[in-house]
Amino acid sequence: MSRAFKSCFALSLLGFVGLFAGCSNKEKVVDVETPNRDVEVTRDTETGEVDIDVERE
Predict the structure, then answer these.
(1) Which terminus of the chain, N or C, has less C-beta within 10 A?
(2) Residues 21, 25, 26, 27: is their CA dihedral positive or negative?
């Protein structure tokens, strides 16, 4: 197989996977990184629901 064919095949495969993976309807509102914790606040653009994620490092 030629290199161009492999590249086209790989791009097509990525596009296919992206099509069926769906899009996230969340937007990042706040993203705070500190030495001990990370806080991320996201909002769903369709419902307005807010999620708060806190990670300890």
Answers:
(1) N
(2) positive
Give the C-alpha separation, 21 to 18, whole Å: 5
Report DSSP letters for 11-55, one per residue.
Answer: HHHHHHHHHHH----EEEEEEEE-SSEEEEEEEETTT--EEEEEE
Do residues 39 and 52 lie in contact, with contact meaning Cβ atoms separated by under 8 Å? Answer: yes
In this predicted model, what pLDDT tens digit does every residue of 1-57 receive, in sequence order?
Answer: 577 777 766 767 666 555 555 566 888 888 998 888 899 999 988 888 999 999 987
